[in-house]
Specification:
The protein has 344 residues and is of the alpha/beta class. It has 8 helices and 19 strands. A 6-stranded antiparallel β-sheet has the order 11-10-13-8-9-12. The two termini are 28 Å apart. Bound molecules: FE2/S2 (inorganic) cluster.
């Protein structure tokens, strides 16, 4: 049995099977329903329920507040219809629509960026051409392993795709990437996904906050902004625990030297020895460095706690939540933990 969901932005009604979410049904048909985490944590699939009934599985307050829920908003990735429905997803400013590609790629380069971050570079062998917006991500599937989401670190239009993979203790993909993967191996890539992409028409200041391997999408965003000639101030911060977790420092120092509108600040949250660097959490740094940010947009990527605390700090400065484009990296363990939460 299925229900018919009429999505205002799509021509034909969407059949949704019993127990399936609206987002799952849309993605199964390769429809461009906006989304990010697919697990009720980012808010990118926020939609208006115009008519009908849905049941929502657990989600974070960050993704959908009580007030939004009371105003008839739902998360398509959590919403299972219990009747025929009509919905409308919230439109992003500067909407972009890239075709979803299912590609076979080949590893052309592998490098250790830190003790626990690997860079892998891929060449598209079939299924392209691949277009995306800076800041988006793709699903990567190594042979015999579950698919995982990683952001593109390269700029749109470049022929080699670059990903930064954080090696997680106990992760299913970690042993393979760290010990077995080699140049020449095949990888299945599906994408692009995500709504935390660079708004290229925005001319106000940019605050770009990266935590750890969250630098991947932020690198793509900053590089794209510079290379299309954005002249507004771009404040880039990279937050990591300790000295050994920093990477691409020389790269961004060189970019900042060549582009006076870019500032780059590494920040250590748990330095193991005395340091001349900035220290603390990115949320604290934002409070220290800004007192007004008229017309700014923020791009954030990293661990959920970093993203959520930094967004709160930015909102306190007067940046609207819709101008904070955030990509929180939830591990499979995070997702499992969050799915145990009591529904709000
Ligand atoms: S995709 Fe639905 S909340 Fe992230």
């Amino acid at each position: 049995m299925s229900f018919s969901v009429s999505v205002r932005q799509f021509e034909a009604p969407l059949p949704v099977e019993m127990g399936q979410t609206i987002l799952e049904a849309a993605l199964a048909r390769d429809l461009p329903y906006p989304h990010g985490c697919r697990s009720g944590n980012c808010g990118a699939c926020k939609s208006e329920l115009i008519s009908g009934e849905v049941e929502m599985s657990p989600y974070s307050d960050f993704a959908l507040t009580e007030a939004e829920k009371n105003n008839g908003l739902i998360l398509a990735c959590r919403a299972v219809p219990w009747s025929d429905c009509e919905v409308k997803f919230l439109e992003a400013d500067e909407t972009v629509a890239h075709p979803l590609r299912h590609m076979q790629c080949r590893v052309v380069d592998l490098a250790a960026m830190t003790h626990d971050i690997r860079r892998i570079c891929l060449e598209v062998k079939s299924g392209g051409p691949y277009t995306f917006s800076a800041g988006q991500y793709a699903s990567l599937e190594f042979p015999g392993l579950p698919a995982r989401d990683y952001s593109m670190a390269n700029r749109p239009g470049e022929t080699t795709l670059e990903f930064h993979i954080r090696l997680l203790p106990g992760g299913a993909v970690t042993p393979f990437v760290s010990q077995t993967l080699k140049v020449g191996d095949r990888v299945k890539v599906i994408g692009p996904y995500g709504t935390s992409y660079l708004r290229e028409k925005h001319s106000g200041p940019i605050i770009a906050l990266a935590g750890g391997s969250g630098l991947a999408p932020i690198k793509s965003i900053v590089d794209q902004a510079l290379d299309i000639g954005c002249k507004q101030p771009i404040h880039l911060y990279l937050g990591v625990r300790d000295e050994r977790d920093l990477y691409l420092e020389d790269y961004f120092r060189e970019r900042a030297a060549a582009h006076p509108n870019l500032s780059f600040t590494p920040v250590l949250s748990e330095p193991s020895s005395a340091t001349a660097r900035r220290t603390g959490f990115l949320a604290d740094i934002v409070r220290q460095d800004f007192d007004g940010v008229d017309g700014a947009k923020a791009y954030l990527a990293g661990p959920p706690v970093m993203v959520e605390t930094a967004v709160s700090a930015l909102e306190a400065l007067g940046i609207r939540k819709q101008d904070c484009h955030a990509d929180a990296f939830y591990t499979e363990a995070d997702k499992a933990r969050l799915s145990q939460k009591v529904p709000t």
